[in-house]
Design a protein that fits this description.
Elements (H helix, E strand, L loop, with lengths): L5 H21 L13 H5 L9 H10 L15 H13 L7 H4 L14 E4 L8 E7 L2 E6 L3 E6 L2 H6 E5 L3
Antiparallel strand pairs: 1-2, 1-5, 2-3, 3-4
Helix pairs in contact: 3-4
Length: 168
Amino acid sequence: MRSLRPQAILSAIVISFLFLAISAIEGVPSSDPNSDSISTTEKAYTSSAGYAQPNDLIIAEAESHLGEPYGYGPGAWRCSEFTQAVIGDALGVWIAGSPAAQLDYGWQPQKTKRGDLLFYSEDGFSITHVAIYMGEGRMIHASTYYGVIATSETRWMEYAYVTARRIR
C-alpha cells in the first residue's frame, strides 16, 4: 500500500477548508437533498443566480436589531459587539469585539457599499466607533443614547470618519 506524503495530506485539508469557507461566505445552497427550504432572509435577499448576497444578509441581520438598547449584557449592544454579532450571524465569520481590533478584518474598499463597516475616531487618534453602511448615506449602529438605530450620517460622523472595511 502506498503512503501519502505529508504535503498531499495538507493540500487536501487546505482545499477542503477553503471550499467550506467559500461556501459559507458566498451562500452556496445546502447539498442536503431533504432540505428544500431557505430562510426568510435568504428569500428576501437572493440574486438572480439564486445565491443570497452577503451585503444584503448583513443589512437584514442588522435591521433585525433595530430598537434594541445600548449597554452591556444580554439584549443590549455596544457598537463593536453589535457589528461583531451581525457579521457573525449573517456571514458566519468571527471578528474581534473592539472597534480598533475590527479594523484588522476584511479589506479597504475603493468605494463604500452596503454592508461595509465604517470606522470613526472621536479623539483623532484611535478608532472609537464602528457602524454598518446601509447605502445612500445611511448607516445602522448602536448609539450610546438611542440604542440600535438606522440614521443618515451626521455632521459629526462625517468629520470623525476614518475608513471602511469590507468583510465577505
